[in-house]
Amino acid sequence: MIRFMMAAAVGSLALAAGCQPQTQTQTQTQTQTQAQQHWALVVHGGAGVIERGAMTPEREAEYRAAMAAALARGEAVLQADGSALDAIEAVIHGMEDDPLFNSGRGAVFTAAGRNELDASIMDGATLEAGAVAGVTQVRHPISLARAVMDNSRHVMLQGEGAETFAREQGLEIVPPAFFFTERRWASMERALGALGLAIPDRPEGAPAPAEIDHGELDRDAREHRFGTVGVVALDRAGNIAAGTSTGGTTAKRWGRVGDSPIIGAGTYANNASCGVSATGTGEYFIRLTVASRICALVEFQGLDLQAASDQVIRDELSAMQGDGGIVALTPDGDIAWSFNTPGMYRARQSEGGEPVVAIYGDED
Fold it and tell me: What is the mean pLDDT of residues 47-73?
């Protein structure tokens, strides 16, 4: 009885003050309005000495179309109120299947004649992350990285153990020859020849040798494309996620692993600051912890995203003589990219805006 009288009194005071009690529908509408946010997306497909005139017009058109398609896959997920994590997978799946990129099916070869794939993903809402290194039979390493995050108590798995986990998770397993491309094999042969190392046997199941455009190999060598693909996404719930996938560097040896699967170096996401995906000479990105460093400058020093990105990439990374670039995104939809190479394959889109695709350093 006392509780009832107190509640009635409080209700009377509210009415007297001109405050009407909210209905359930009004409360739900307010909650939806507060939670509603515009989505945003930014993608990269590798950085390097990418200069005007170095590619044929046909090859340039292929790259621009591939980057536009990557945006379209992410847009489809985010526009349907999908999560940033789902958008990451959708974008990178297509890039892992596209021989234009050094990731998945277009991956470069190690000195042993293998495609060894690395990937990572991070959820900015929870700071949970997953990563894999040196896998050779998983069609989509980014999905394996997510499975590590979602379905294991670990952050990183590597090699045979990672592939055993992939089978247990029901992920698609393919023969190593699935990733073979003549272009990447020829680049590996050229690199090993320059190092004075023996050429390995062609992988079992690889197609018969095909004629290769050596001018294209020359362009590849000049371009020094790092090959990593990556994306940062912001969904309508206001959550950020970042993901990265790569085949590493041509003719790498001794089980070398770069920055792409290392959380804080090649990939980082935190709703308190930003999300970052990187591409470049991994050893420098690891030493500088590039991805998390940019987010720390935003969170703790109050730098805007572009200023933080430029400080780390153009100043600090360059001072170490490292090269590469990043794409980044904040929870309020601010997008940045920064690179200290002549070019970087990159694209961005915000809800309600037009897609932007760029390659060269003099493009917005």
Answer: 92
CB-count burial class (<10 Å; 0-12, 13-18, 19+) for 264: buried
DSSP label at residue 360: E
**344-362 pLDDT, tens per residue?**
999 999 999 999 999 999 9
What is the per-residue pLDDT across 281-294, written as a single tens digit (0 to 9) for each? 999 999 999 999 99
Domains and CATH numbers, the chain: 2-34 (no CATH), 38-360 (3.60.20.30)
Residues with catalytic roles: 228
% of residues, the chain, pLDDT over 90: 81
Residue 216: the pLDDT is 66
**Which two three-digit tokens encode residue 1?**
């009885």
What's the CA gap between 144 and 356, in Å, rounded?
Answer: 29
DSSP H helices in 208-316: 214-223, 282-288, 290-301, 305-310
Q: Which of 297, 342, 294 is nearest to 48 (CA)?
A: 342
Question: Region 204-220: what's the mean pLDDT?
Answer: 78
155, 98, 282, 154: CA torsion to nearest 10? 0
Q: What is the CA radius of gyration of the chain?
A: 23
Q: Which amino acid is at 49?
A: V
What's the chain's length in residues? 364
What token pair was written down for 89? 């997978």
CA–CA separation, 309 and 294 (whole Å): 6
pLDDT tens digits, one per residue of 67-118: 999 999 999 999 999 999 999 999 999 999 999 999 999 999 999 999 999 9
In Å, what is the CA distance from 226 to each residue of 107, 171, 250, 289, 328? 11, 27, 9, 17, 18
Judge whether 186 and 180 are in contact, CB under 8 Å. Answer: no
**Nearest CA-CA partner of 95 in 250, 330, 260:** 260
Residue among 310, 233, 232, 246 at smallest CA distance from 279: 246
Task: Give helix 159-168 / helix 141-151 axis angle, nearest 10°.
Answer: 80
Q: Which helix (H) or strand (E) holds 135?
A: strand 129-135
